[in-house]
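Closing statement on the magnesium ion sub-project.
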Amino acid sequence: MNIIHDLFSFDFLRYSLIATILASISTGMVSPIIVYRGMEFIGDGLAHAIFAGVAVAVIANFNILLGALSATVIFAYLIHKIKDLESIRESTAIGILLPVFMSIGVIVFSKSPRYTTDVTSYLFGNILMVVKDDIYFLSAIALLGAIIISSKLYEIAYWISDEEMARFYGINTERIRLTLLFLISFIVVSALKIAGVIVMGAFLVIPGVFAKTRSLSLKGAIYRAIGFNILSSLIGFTLSYYFDLPPGPTLVLFSFLLLLASTLL
Amino acid sequence: MRDKIAIEVRDLSVSVGETGILKNISFEIPKGSFTGIIGPNGAGKSTLIKAILGLIEYRGTVRVNGRIGYVPQLSSFNREFPINVYDFVRLPIRKEKNWKEKVDIALEKVGLKGFGNRLMGTLSGGEFQRASLARALISRPDILILDEPEAGIDEMGKARFYDLLNELKEEEGITILMASHDIGLIFDKCDNVMCLNKTLHCHSPIHSVDIEDIKRLFGDFDIWIRSREHYEILHRPKERNGKV
Ligand SMILES: Nc1ncnc2c1ncn2[C@@H]1O[C@H](COP(=O)(O)OP(=O)(O)O)[C@@H](O)[C@H]1O
Ligand SMILES: [Mg+2]
């Protein structure tokens, strides 16, 4: 009953550990951006979009991953458009769209209540079902995120701190916003098996909150958020393994406890 | 002579939905002048500036002759965000290789030598505005547009800030257009003054301004004019309004 020994013995355990680390990196990367920009509910919004996408995919006998991905891309694009048209904050646009997508999902499911294990694993995560392809997908998205964020770090920082001046001095803030919204959508979809949509929000918010008050730059905040996420999910992962608890929720609870402890210390 | 004009505005109107915010504004700003825009809160000063900068939609024509540096109203910056003075100031020249030297020079000019690594959120109001000025100056502008730069600065800080602007005007010939609440300082430092409240109520050299215009502009509240040489803004109790 040694996790190290088990890791060497069982592929599925090794995969799920690698997937957890990759998901911690990619969600940690965008978390400070989400928190500083004040769009903390994007994770929940995307979760509801995914619910609708999965519902439609199940009914239409369509690939569930593609359903989830298309729904989040549509959701992200609508946030972008509504924000432009009404000159409101992203968080308000998210608040408008979230119940809309949830309603679509509920209505579609009401016509054919076929919850499959696939659906539940999207909703709640299913860390022990991680396969090699998931690892590839997670790695690709984490790499994409790292490239986008590191190459546009300065522009992103100005977009968060002073959008009007960024625009005045030639930064394409629209493109930055849309790119980041899409990136966050991909990250959420890629990390679904780890956390499930229900608790995904925590992965996107808690590390950013931890990093926010301790950092001297956006870059520093991103590194801190990633470090926090990796540490807390590794410990959470181990705990869930030893005590046979559902991994996603265990990870979130532990992450919250770690944040709490860090503010008290 | 066209080339003596820095900014030319013709029949400028701005509305949001059905509401007119600015109506039929026309004026010219001569090169090398220091013009103040005064007007009560909500008069449309920021809107006029944003129209000149091309940040919002408008009807009419705006011609700008030269490069603009812009010092926005304090509120547009998210003070919680960790960005240091170097990164804050280098925005206009962020793609240049030797930005650091240039930022250092600009910081020295505005009296913030050695502040490069400080976080913007830790600066005082006056320091913040000077950093904002450094950012505007770093692109070597011909025209400097400032929106209520005195907000959040104490009296000492204000005096130093305006002296700095005067220096820029005298030594580098920069044209300055500045919206402000601070009528006293405008009368002290500017060559020309524009009175704005939805439309342009006056636009003239500072010495030929009609005090009655200004009183009308501000309505009955918060301006107290003792003489041509002495202007004060006071918050008068309501019942004594109109007895100026
Ligand atoms: N985006 C906007 N939508 C609606 N009304 C606006 C908008 N921007 C400014 N206003 C209104 O236009 C008027 C002028 O605003 P502003 O230019 O900020 O005035 P000032 O800078 O002189 O205080 C105010 O009544 C304000 O409420
Ligand atoms: Mg204003």
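Chain B touches chain A through 21 residues (CB under 8 Å). With this model delivered, the sub-project is considered complete and its resources will be redirected to Aim 3.
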